[in-house]
Design brief:
CATH class: Alpha Beta
Bound molecules: flavin mononucleotide
Strand content: 15-25%
Shape: globular
Structural class: alpha+beta
Strand order of the largest sheet: 1-2-4-3
CATH architecture: 3-Layer(aba) Sandwich
CATH topology: NADH Oxidase
Number of domains: 1
Oligomer: single chain
């Protein structure tokens, strides 16, 4: 795991290669194996591989989502906020875990923040996605994870760039 983390970077450029069905199954397993508070599993996942839908989802916020139009897959991570008061944490754990598993099977990925983001001054990014994918009213949308075979190489962050002063021992 630490070796994966050492090489982990957000990947926003993808080739046109389709993700093999076996790998899609691994990604499904990864989200469903994510831990959740009290084992409530409040999340729901929408795997989107339809090009037109990906193009529309890429427009769900003005900045930081455009690259989704070229991704092979977008995983929309939602949860029922009535089921758990810590649904944000549960969704975040599923989001990062699926990113790490994706990396372990040779895929690049990037988190797209949806919660608290807007399409424009009248409409949230969440509402945009709700309309597009028929997400039921009770579900909140945390993120979309864009995935695909990577078409960019990024250097790992060197160890000397890590902010070790953020870690304190026993006392702030
Ligand atoms: C909670 C969260 C939200 C993020 N939202 C976006 C986003 O909306 N669009 C985007 O392009 N990247 C997004 N990212 C990726 C970060 O920009 C990225 O992780 C950060 O710049 C560090 O780069 P690295 O992942 O390559 O180390 C998000 C990351 C996290 C953890």
């Amino acid at each position: 795991m630490i070796e994966l983390l050492r090489k982990r970077r957000s990947i926003r450029k993808y080739t046109e290669k389709v993700i093999e069905p076996e790998k899609i199954e691994i990604l499904k397993e990864a989200v469903l194996r994510s831990p959740s508070s009290r084992g409530i599993d409040p999340w729901e996942f929408i795997f989107v591989d339809n090009r037109e839908l990906l193009k529309q989802l890429a427009l769900s916020k003005p900045h930081g989502a455009g690259f989704l139009k070229d991704a092979a897959l977008g995983i929309v991570i939602c949860a029922d906020e009535q089921k758990s008061d810590v649904w944000v944490e549960d969704c975040s754990i599923a989001s990062i875990l699926v990113q790490m598993v994706a990396q372990s099977i040779g895929l690049g990925s990037c988190w797209i923040q949806i919660r608290n983001r807007n399409f424009d001054e009248h409409k949230t990014s969440e509402d945009c996605i709700r309309n597009l994918l028929n997400v039921p009213g009770g579900l909140k949308v945390e993120s979309i994870i864009a995935l695909g075979y990577q078409a960019e190489e990024k250097e790992p962050v060197p160890r000397e760039n890590l902010k070790y002063d953020k870690v304190r021992i026993n006392n702030y």
